[in-house]
Write a structure and sequence with these properties.
The chain has 80 residues and is mostly beta strands. A hairpin with a 5-residue loop joins β2 and β3. The chain starts with a strand and ends with a strand. The strands form two sheets. The chain has a four-stranded antiparallel β-sheet. A two-stranded antiparallel sheet has the order 2-3. The longest helix is centred in the first third of the chain and has 5 residues. The protein contains two helices and six strands, in the order βαββββαβ. It is globular, with a radius of gyration of 15 Å.
């Protein structure tokens, strides 16, 4: 039987205000969206988090080794 995992996270609203306008997409309904990425830490907790959240970088930004814009982190709760 497959067990479920809950992800509980927080995002810093001040960090969201600093997202470059070119990273924000406006949908047909007028709502604004930003692509985010998460990744799990392999060993133990970092800053009491199991994973981090950042604004998604473009392939060119990755190639250029542009700074990662962290906006939050969270915990994974097993067998929720």
């Amino acid at each position: 039987m497959k067990t479920s995992r809950l992800r509980r996270f927080s995002i810093c609203l001040n960090d969201l205000e600093a997202i470059p306008v070119e990273k924000i997409t406006v949908a047909g309904n007028g709502k604004k969206y930003v692509s985010i990425s998460t990744w799990d830490y392999q060993d133990g907790h970092t800053n009491d988090h199991d994973f981090s959240i950042s604004v998604t970088r473009s392939p060119q930004e990755i190639k250029d080794k542009s700074a990662i814009q962290y906006i939050g982190g969270g915990l994974i709760i097993e067998n929720y």
